[in-house]
Amino acid sequence: MNLRRNLLAGLANSGWSALVGFAVVPFYLKYLGMEAYGLIGFFMTAQVMFQLLDMGMAPTMNREVARCSASGQLRDAGKLLHTLAVIYWCVAIVIGLVIILLAPFIATHWLKSKDLPSHTVVNALMLMGLVVASRWPIGLYQGALLGAQRMTVSSAVNMSMVTLGSVGAVLILAFVSPTIEAFFAWQAFVGLVYAVTLRKVTWLVIGASDANRFDTSELKRIWRFTAGMSAIGLTGVVFSQLDKIILSKVLALEDFGQYMLASVVVSGLYVLITPVFNLIYPRFSALVAKGDIEELKKHYHLGTRLLASILFPAAMLLAVFAKDIVYIWTGNLQVATSTAPVIALLASGSALHGVMHFPYALQLAYGTTRLSLTIYLVLIVVMLPLLAFLPLKFGTVGGGAAWLVVLIFYMLFGTWFMHRRLLPGQAIIWLGRDVGIPLLLSVTVGVCLFQLTFAGFDGLYVKFAGGLILMLILPLASAFTSGELRGYAFAKVQGRIR
């Protein structure tokens, strides 16, 4: 099991996916317009919401494969994979039919379209159903590959399909039909190819066997953890998508498109977050299964400090230079000006959300799903009144502000609640040292750059110097304030010299 190789594969996958995603957005806006892009944003939100029907099966598959891999019995996971796959493909069909049937109602009673004809919106929504259905089984097979620590395989397939889906969509819009219906028809085709390809690759890794049959005893064996993960999935998805759900209702489709545009920019942070989580979750699960708690604590603290040292400066870069980034990206000054404050708020909140993936992975590794469920329920209770007031008064900025406030509460409350149960005595160390030092350094530099900008020192050289500090100097300084990371780095250097 090569952690470095898996991490690099995950970073390459996230980086390439984000790069391709960013590159095609200006073309989508050119050929489709902001209202139609709002429909794409609604599709992304709907796709995440339908993860509720996953019922915890994908993360359960990840955990079970990781445990089988740690014991050297990877083929034992084959029966569970086959059983869950049957369920997944059946659910995919149901999802597609439900969205198609609800399309007219959503078009007329939920979305607020000004320029797009109602029949165009209905057709696009129906095609969305096919896209979501065709992509639905992908999560299960990805969970199995990640549990088997085959991130290189999963990343290679995903990068290929992201390129085919995004670049192919631009070509379709440019040379075939510049319509939102053509866009979603292409995505449905690519989604089906993706699911079938990933299915074949996963069985090659796990090892197909004629003995694998649908087995209800496999469901009985995992139902407790799966039920817990299902509840966590429900509350987690509602928590992460609640702002988008409410804003899609209260804002015009064009304004919602701008909010989703800001969300796409901020999603670049998950280039760092997602591969790290995909790496540490099965690693934590294996260490818990072995009972190696000291090694678990080491990975937990060092991993958090390293991620925070890179993530917080990156978030501050987005917050400080949001307007410049969007203007260079889209060439539209009005869009850049209106989305910059939203990006600053969303980026700050998402950075805090990113480091909270370490406590979350630890909870799942221990199988204590009740902790995560309780935390998410509390967060939803806190978030609902904020979203009921702030977006109505401040629009898209209100949605971003609600996200940041809730994430600050999440870090303080979730840290205390989780560590008290799983790692007593570690909360202050984790929050004050692993998270607090990188956060303090990043905020200090960010505030200084904001002050320089407001004072009129916003020339190209100042922006270049600020970007260099945030992306290179600050992460190194933040990481090397940790004695453990210094010792680890020096040991690696000495080992190479010898």
Q: Roughly how many Å apart are the termini?
A: 24 Å
Tell me the total number of β-strands.
0
Rg computed from alpha carbons, rounded to a whole number of angstroms:
23 Å
- Binned strand content: under 5%
Structural class: mainly alpha
Percentage of residues assigned to helices: over 70%
What overall geometry do the principal axes of the alpha carbons give? globular
- Order of H and E elements: HHHHHHHHHHHHHHHHHHHH
Largest sheet report: none
Poorly predicted spans: none
Number of helices: 20
Overall pLDDT confidence: 81
| Domain unit count | 2
Account of the 3D structure:
The chain has 498 residues and is an all-alpha fold. The protein has 2 domains: 1-252, no CATH class; 291-498, no CATH class. The chain has helices spanning 3-32, 34-49, 57-70, 78-109, 118-135, 138-147, 151-175, 180-206, 216-250, 253-266, 270-290, 293-320, 322-330, 333-355, 357-366, 369-394, 396-422, 427-454, 460-479, 483-497.
Which labels suit this protein?
498 residues; mainly alpha; 20 helices; globular
